[in-house]
Amino acid sequence: LSGIQHMAFCERQWSLINIEQAWAENTHTLEGKHLHERVDDPFFNETRRDTRIVRSMPLVSRNLGLTGIADVVIFKQVSDNQEKGIKLPHRSGLWALYPVEHKKGHPKVDDRDAVQLCAQAMALEEMFNTSINIGYLFYNQTRRREEINLDGDLRDLTMYLSERMHELFRSGKTSKAIKSKHCSQCSLLEICQPDLTTKHRSIQKYLAEMSKLEEFEV
Questions:
Q1: Residue 185 carries which DSSP code?
Q2: Are 19 and 172 in contact (CB under 8 A)?
Q3: How far is Cα 201 from Cα 208, in angstroms, rounded to an integer?
Q4: Buried (b) or exposed (e) across 183-203, using 16+ Cβ within 10 A?
Q5: Residue 199: its pLDDT value, please?
Q6: How many CB atoms lie within 10 A of CB 119?
Q7: Measured between alpha carbons, how far is 96 from 70 in angstroms, rounded to an integer?
Q8: Cα dist. 127→130, 156, 159 in Å?
Q9: Which of 29, 54, 151, 156 has its CA at a distance of 20 to 30 angstroms from the CA of residue 135?
Q10: pTM here?
Q11: CB-based contact 83:178 (threshold 8 Å)
């Protein structure tokens, strides 16, 4: 599930990680790793009156073909006439689900974090046979929880990205680089070498240049 964020950020980044098994750390990845280590506690289970908080919850979605871990899932008790409520073992009433994904830094200008949250919500919907309309992204820099509307457009994008991930994995081919300003944020910049991969030269042209060079040296 976390891989869908890489796919939303850059197809080549996802390909390098998941097809070529390449990885490198930078300040962004180390900060993110440290943040998730702080919230990663599968034994944490807290109940506050009408709210239950569960951390590091395993998720699986057959529709998306993805598995993963949710940072936090909030179970909120709702009135009995709300269709989205589910029953929980050994607890009375109905409960609605809200995934919460923890992120470093601040809200992004694109949907890379939102699609990861949406994928988690879609997995929870399958697992509990319910519907989830909103989720939350918590950013450690702003210390605020951003409410995300899990609408049809975001769900369509999430489904497309998951299908694209499977398509690329089956092909075994690494996507070509598309250089942009976000390349500077990528920990795989040195491995990716976007400047080299975007400059194409035919084999014939390369051999011709090498032949001229050899003639000049002789």
A1: G
A2: yes
A3: 11
A4: beebbbeeebebeeeeeeeee
A5: 57
A6: 29
A7: 16
A8: 8, 19, 17
A9: 29
A10: 0.78
A11: no
State the CB neighbour count (10 A cutoff) for residue 19.
15
Q: How far apart are CA 88 and CA 96, in angstroms?
A: 10
Round to whole Å and give the CA distance between 107 and 213.
52
Sign of the CA dihedral 29, 31, 35, 40?
positive
101's tokens: 């994904």
Give me the amino acid identity at 122: M
Q: Which residues of the chain have a pLDDT value below 50?
A: 218
pLDDT at residue 183 in the model: 78
Q: Quick check: 29 and 43 in contact, CB under 8 A?
A: no
**DSSP letters of 76-135?**
EEE-TT-TT-B--TT--SEEEEEEEEEESSS--SSSHHHHHHHHHHHHHHHHHT----EE
Q: In the prediction, which pLDDT does 185 show?
A: 77
On whether the CB atoms of residues 200 and 194 are closer than 8 A, the answer is no
pLDDT in tens, 41-70: 655 667 777 899 999 999 999 999 999 999
Joined tokens for residue 71:
């940072």
The token pair that represents 158 in the structure block: 């999430």
Please name the helix (run of DSSP H) or strand (run of DSSP E) that holds residue 184, with its range, or none.
none
Residue 104 near residue 32 (C-beta atoms within 8 A)? yes
Give the separation between CA 110 and CA 161, rounded to whole angstroms.
Answer: 14
User: What phi and psi values does residue 54 have, to the nearest 5 degrees?
Assistant: -125, 130
